Amino acid sequence: MTAASASNSEPARQRWPWWPLLPLYPYGRRRTLVRELIPNQLWSFEQLQGLFYVAVPIRMTVVRLRQGLMLYAPLPPTAELLSALRELEATYGPVRTIVLPTASGLEHKLPAPALARACPQAELWVTPRQWSFPLRLPQSWLGFPASRTRVLFEQGLPHGDELLWRALGPLNLGLGTFMEVACLHRASGSLLVTDALVAIGTDPPPVFNADPTPLLFHARDRGDQPLEDTPEQRRRGWWRLVLFASYLQPAPLSVAGLREVLRHAFAPGLRRPRSHFGLYPFRWHPNWEQAFVELVAEDAPRPQVAPVLERLVFPRCRAALVSWIRSLAELDETRWLVPAHYEAPVPCTPERLSRLADELEQRPWAPDQGNWSTLAGIDRTLVKLGLVPAEPAP
Ligand SMILES: [Fe+2]
Q1: Which domain holds residue 241?
Q2: What is the pLDDT of residues 182-213, one digit of tens each?
């Protein structure tokens, strides 16, 4: 193999050298799945992101505008991603606008400077109140190109005739500011959101098809069981990944003791990194599936608030969230919801969003019990340490 062909190999084209900034699975190798969501108008670029195989899809949405393309919620611009983007540019015009629609979502922020460098004709529009945790660095230190970076709302809004913008926040989280900016693409009726709303399907998303290892890893009950690839195992693994990502430790999950983990580790055939050498420190209780069914209703995927956000980000900000959802429900051209994680596009109407706002107002908010108890414990600790305010800031 020549050097040139080696550098054009699949792993090389999927390389993301900045992964140590946010060391999440799959680390330095990011496959990108490109799907056309709405013909000739909207495309989804998806990668996986997570910790120890708890991986969920993260999405950049590409929107066709009259003057070219807009990228909403940046992804790491691997060679593979850029070549797919260049193909769209050849047909629909250059990337004119990149939008960083969140003030706090590091996973969307860290790739923004590299993506902006890869699209030199684009203006980078960022949410106000950008903050970096744990260090507070000026934006230019974070690599944002000063000459073509603009702040949404403070310096205007891009493509106002084709797009409508609605901000949630800023909300004071103590550790920083939460702010997210939704965008309605009027031509396609697509409402783009980032983290505040998601829709979760009962089947694993197609981004896992290239490598279902994270699903198969979690589909097992013990570390000495082989990774078996069947549609049932993929689905079982997906349900567990969703529960991990939603609640960190849902009620029907125990963390196994070290002795038990080691007893099942290093089984023949599993002594390799892919199966984490047979180390599997989790024990799922009987009927664990019920927790998934409670979270993801039968008519899934439907718009909902991710539990981890409800309990850790918005526990004292329900009113702000509900009024933002009501402001989205006033956008009467909405036909689809396109969040930056999980499923997209999801059928969505203004009525559906109003109903969601009503539901959120009426049901118990940010509970402490059952599946929520781990999240509630983290929140209590953060409040006790004074890291997050006990009451929302006015
Ligand atoms: Fe996110």
Answers
A1: 206-295
A2: 999 999 999 999 999 999 999 999 999 988 99
